[in-house]
Amino acid sequence: MQEFDPHVLEEKPIAPPAEFQKRARVQTLEEYKKIYDRAKDDPEGFWGEQAKMLDWFERPQKVLEWDLPHAKWFSGGKLNVAHNCLDRHLAKNGKKVALYWEAEDGKRLKFTYAELHARVCKFANALLTLGVKAGDCVAVYMPMIPELPIALLACARIGAIHSVVFGGFSAVSLADRIGDAKAKWLITADGGYRRGHVVPLKDTADKAIESCPTIEKVVVVKRTGEKVAWKQGRDLWWHELEEKASAKCPAPAFDAEHPLYILYTSGTTGKPKGVLHTSAGYLLGCMYTMQLVFDLRADSRDDDVYWCTADIGWVTGHSYLVYGPLANAATCVMYEGAPDFPKRDRFWEIIERYKVSILYSSATAVRAFMAWGNDWITKHDLSSLRLLGTVGEPINPAAWKWYFEVIGGNRCPIVDTWWQTETGAIMISPLPGATPTKPGSATLPMPGVISRVVTMKGEAVKPGETGYLVIEKPWPSMLRTIYGDDERFKRDYWTRIPGVYFTGDAAQLDADGYTWVLGRVDDVIKVAGHRLSSMEIESALVSHPSVAEAAVVARPDEIKGEAIVCFVTLRSGIEPTRELRAALGEHVAVTIGTIARPSEVRFADLLPKTRSGKIMRRLLREVAEKGGVSGDTTTLEDLSVIAKLAAAKGTDEE
Ligand code: ATP
Ligand code: MG
């Protein structure tokens, strides 16, 4: 991947807003570099020091044992993850709010650290009475209710491995994941709420279990009160178990490398992989990045109110709604439902109500908010915000600037955080008080992370050239294996380019060493011998004032090799016309070069996405290739075509 069109690299750096910088943990780029170099020169010394932020029952003897690709971090050390997230805060922060929970219908609950601790202990005891032991796997299929983090922490407390399956997945997806992990217990709910409708989780779980012979007990939270089928002896109500359980539950000491959870990746590129994370290294990665990336204040009089909008079904919810913030004694907001229910200003209402100071959301969500228009936002007081974050996909510079101005009022730094389910914690991101940002770039690696952009032979590419993003050294929160498939772990991540971790993402470095993640390696388009990234063209489209979101794919073309097909969602109130289509084609040609001029621009009300909000370009490639597209049709793209394709490809790929 040598050729490129350097257009996204021209952005001028934006200095950290001064007010923010004054109180930040790390206040200058020089300071960042000092920490970075210290970590680079002596990684084990660095991580050994960082590991002191965990509360150990027994101190580790050795920081790292590295037998590529297998890492053991903090050998000899013993700790309990739930103790680190709850018990150790009780003396000082027992009365502090750990969680504000808001239901979609407006109901609100709050839990102090002491209350959350008691609930976790009770449910941990309940799990013990069901025969769950350390090392056993418990599947979790739940809506975004407080019992979900409670279930996770209860598993962690007794050393059980949780495997959360996002509550939007189908029976087949759930059954696949239960089967892969051979879980004997499933925790679910009678249902959940989404846009006012009941999502029948128990029904779906029942269907899944028909093909899951390993499941012995099903614990059901009563959330909706709807009637559900009940299998005597197998199904148990959560509240009945909890009522009977004691609030005293010891937190045993587990090895640093004791498995904590399995989580399947989004499946954007193929069959989902069961990523295995273990205890100490993972927790350290979450805790450390909460402090540096979110600059979290959790021990002063003006503590942050922190809101990560991700579902706990995804890694972002695991690391940055449960483990990272709670290990740091933060006050978190958790919201059950959709951002447009009852209206499109639900998020801004929540921020105003709880005085949220840190908002962490996805690039996709930002583009949706931008499409909905600013009127929903300006009627709310968002002055409590001091820091914004994004994750999940490259954020197009236009969406970045909109986020900065309209949501952040030009005073909140944005941390564009690059990481993966596999990395466990944020790997590349600005430090908000120190790193000048460039819209669309995740900027610089975290201290302790050695990232590179290389050719398939592992040689560094020149600034501005596209290459493969790799990580050179092991890091504490890295995945330990693919559950049940260590060969795949080696093959997918460690042998593509020997000796380094292969991320699967394409990227460029600019002259300042900033990383520009361009998307997945598979999303690179080759037109007439030139390699273009879908991200570059999408960003060009999103920089047009009529466009809210765009997805760009290639379809085979006899003359050019590949032809560029754009799927475009317009901002609210903009009409899709033949003229606009032509204007968008021209806009791309002017912004990037005529080589990037699209062969087709199709308007779509919505783009097909994974359940975690990532655009399914793979699906769109098929629509572009086989969808019977010809000539200049001004009709809107029929979304049912995409829906049918999605259904035909199987439920994991919705
Ligand atoms: P699968 O691996 O099964 O295809 P997935 O990669 O979509 O699924 P995740 O681990 O949730 O599953 O997503 C990680 C990916 O998301 C990264 O590899 C990258 O492509 C993208 N990503 C995440 N954050 C950013 C970011 N800040 N900028 C650019 N891309 C990002
Ligand atoms: Mg991936």
Describe this structure as you would to a colleague.
By secondary structure, the protein is an alpha/beta fold. Helix content is 31%, strand content 22%. Helix 16 (397-407) links the parallel strand 19 (387-391) and strand 20 (414-416). The model is unreliable at 1-9, 628-639 and 643-654 (pLDDT under 50). The two termini are 30 Å apart. Helix 11 crosses helix 12 (315-327). The radius of gyration is 24 Å and the shape is globular. It folds into two domains: 7-451 and 490-500, 3-Layer(aba) Sandwich (Rossmann fold), CATH 3.40.50.12780; 522-647, ANL, C-terminal domain (GMP Synthetase, Chain A, domain 3, 2-Layer Sandwich). The chain is built from 21 helices and 30 strands. The strands form eight sheets. Strands 12-11-8-6-7-14-15-23 form an eight-stranded mixed sheet, sandwiched between helices. It has a seven-stranded mixed sheet with strand order 5-4-17-16-18-19-20, sandwiched between helices. A four-stranded antiparallel sheet has the order 21-22-24-25.
